[in-house]
Amino acid sequence: MKKIFKYFSLPILSIGLLWSCDNLDVPITTQLTPDVFPQNSTQYVQTAGPVYAAFRGEYSFAWWWTQSLSTDEAIMPARGGNWFDGRNYIAMHFHDWTADNGIVGSLWDWTSKVIGISNQTISILDAAMPEGTEKNTMMAEIKTMRAIAYFMMMDSYGDVPIYTDYGDFTSRPKSTRKEVFEFIEKELKDAIPNLSAASGVTTYGRPNKQTANALLAKMYLNAEVYTGTQRYNDCIAACDEVIKSGLYAIEGRSTYLQMFYPNNGPQMKEFIFAVPYDPTASTVGFNGNMYHARYDVPRSLRAKFGLSFTPSAPRSTLPEFYANFENDANDIRNKQWLTGKQYLADGVTPVMVTTTKKGYDEYYTGSDGGATYTYQVELSKAITYRGIPANLIGSFDVGNDEIAWNMGYRNIKFYPDAGSTNRNQNNDVPFLRYSDILLMKAEAILRGGSATLGDTPLLLVNTVRSNRTTSTPWGSVTLQTLYEERCREFAHEAWHRNDMIRFGKFEGSWGFKTDADIKHRLFPIPTGALTLNPALVQNPNYPNGK
User: Fold this and answer.
1) Residue 419 resides in a domain
2) Which residues form the RagB/SusD domain (predicted)?
3) Region for 297 from its dihedrals, namely left if φ exceeds 0, alpha if ψ lies in -120 to 50, beta otherwise
4) Considering the domain boundaries, does residue 450 fall inside one?
C-alpha cells in the first residue's frame, strides 16, 4: 500500500504549484517546459501526482466535517473552551453556519484546488505526452478526479462555476446545478472507455472504469435532488456495470472491520476507490493527513490503543444515530463503537483515572473538592448541557471535567494506528465501496426503477447483511429500513448528509438542533470566494451570508 502511495508522492511538488481557490485555475510558476520535463512514463506519473496529493489533502477534514457534523452522525461540542474555534464546529450541528464559517470555506477551497491543479496537469500532459493509449488513460484519470471534485462541490453548494481550461482567469458566474450535473456526467462517460479495466494493486488510489460507473450511480440515485428529474433506471444500469465487472465482492463478517484498519489497502475486495494515507509521507502545500483517532479516542484510552500521542477526543456520536446499532447484538458493525465502561486491550482490566472530586465534576459543591477521586472510565450515551446559562446555550460548551470528556459514544471504525509515531494514521479511507453499489441498486428499485439481473431489493440488502450479522435474514425491506442499514454500513464514511437529504431527513431534529430550513441542504458560497470572484452570487436564502 505504501509503495502505491509513494507512486504519487513526487518531487514534482517542488515545481511550486500555486492555486487560486476561487478561479479554479493554477498558474505555473516554473521554468519547466515539456521539452525538459515531463518526457517519459515515470515523469508523466510524477506530473499527475499533485492531483492525488491535493485530493488527499482535505478529504478526511473539510469533506468529513461538512458531510458528517451536519448530520445526526456526529457532534463536536466545545469542552471548557477547547474546540470552540469561533463556533465553526458546533455551527455544523445547529445548521446555523454562515458564509464566514471556516469549515464551509475549507471545503470550497480544497475542491477548488483539486480542480485547478487538475486543469494545470491536463494542460501539461496534453502538451508533453505523445498520442496513444498511455496518454488517453492518464488524461481520463485526471478528468475523473476533477469530476469527483466537481461532484463534491455540486453536492455541497449547488450552483458552481465550471472551469476546464488552464490559464482562464476570468471571473466566471455559477453554472446551474443541473448544468454542473450534466458536465460531470459527460466527463465520466467520456472517460470510461479510456480508464483501466483492472482493479487492485495496479490501479489502487487512481480511478478505473468502475470508479466512474460507481460515481455515476451515486449521481443518478440523487438526480432528483440535483436536477429535479429522477433517474433510477440509469442508477441501476451504472450499478450493473460494476456488478458485471466481477472485480469486487462483499467482505465477510470476519473481515468487515479490517477494511478500515491501518494495514488496509488494495487487498480489500470492496474498495472501488480509496484514498491512501501514510504518516511517513511529507506532502508539501497540503494537509494530507488522517486524524480520526485524534478526534475519536478518549484521552484516557491512550494506553489501551498504544498511541504515541494523547488524543483530543472532542468528537462523539448522538443517541439518535447510535439507535441504528442497538437492535442486533450479532452485527459485527457494533464493534466500531466505544461505549459504556472501558477496559484495557485485554478486555478485563478496567481503565482507571485518578483526579479530584472537582476534576471529575466541576460543579461539585462539597468542601473537599480537592480530594483525590479515582473512577473507571465510562462513556455516556447522552450529551447534555451542564450549568450553562440559557443565553450561552448556543456556544454549547459541555464543560472541562471528566464527566464532560466522557460524554458521547465514540466511533473507531478507522482503528487507531499504534504503529504511527505521530497523530497521522496509515488507514486508507474508501470513497466508493461495493456494498454501496448493492444498496444503491436496492434503493433505486424500491424507488421505482426496474429490477435487473434477477436482483430484488431484499436479495441485495440480505447479501450485504449476511456478511455483517449472523441474525436471521430480513423477510422484507422498506425505504426506512434500507436507510437504517445505510447508517450502519457507512457510518463515518462521509455519506450520511447525502443520504439524509435524499431520504428527506436532513430537516429533522436531533441532539440540540431544531432547524428545519430546507435552504440548509446547501452551504453558502464562502465570503472569500465572493470577494475574489465578483461574478459569483450568494446561494438563495443566505442574505448577507447568513
Assistant:
1) no
2) 399-542
3) beta
4) yes
User: From CA 333, how far away is CA 49, in angstroms rounded?
Assistant: 35
Asked if residue 307 and residue 276 are part of one domain, the reply reads no
Please give the model's pTM, rounded to 2 decimal places.
Answer: 0.94
Cβ atoms of residues 162 and 183 within 8 Å: yes
Q: Give, in order, the Cα–Cα distances in Å from 261 to each of 94, 416, 429.
A: 32, 8, 10
Residue 507 CA, distance from chain mean position:
21
The residue type of 288 is: G
Confidence check: pLDDT of 13 > 60: no
DSSP 379-437: EBS-----S--GGGGGG-B--SSHHHHTBS-EE-SS---TT-SSS-----EEEEEHHHH
SS3 134: helix
**What rounded mean pLDDT belongs to the chain?**
91
The residue among 61, 86, 73 whose CA lies nearest residue 408 is 73
pLDDT in tens, 438-490: 999 999 999 999 999 999 999 999 999 999 999 999 999 999 999 999 999 99
- For residue 16, what pLDDT is reported? 35
Q: What is the DSSP string of 105-123?
A: HHHHHHHHHHHHHHHHHHH
Report strand pairing: 337-338 vs 271-275: unpaired
| DSSP state string for 9-58 | --GGGGGT----TTT------SS--TTTS--SHHHHHHHHHHHHHHHHHH
Instruction: Name 472's Cβ contacts closer than 8 Å, sequence gap at least 6.
Output: none
Nearest to 386 by CA among 370, 402, 373: 402
Rounded to an integer, what distance in angstroms lies between the CA atom of residue 9 and that of residue 315? Answer: 30
Q: Is residue 458 within 8 Å of residue 474, measured between CB atoms?
A: yes
Range of the domain at 299: 292-411
Residue 274 pLDDT > 90, yes or no? yes
Count of beta carbons in the 10 Å neighbourhood of residue 5:
22
Q: How far apart are CA 352 and CA 386, in angstroms?
A: 24
Q: Which three cell numbers stand for residue 140?
A: 481520463
* Entry field: residues in the chain: 546
Cβ pair 464, 485 in contact under 8 A: yes
Task: Give me the amino acid identity at 443.
Answer: E
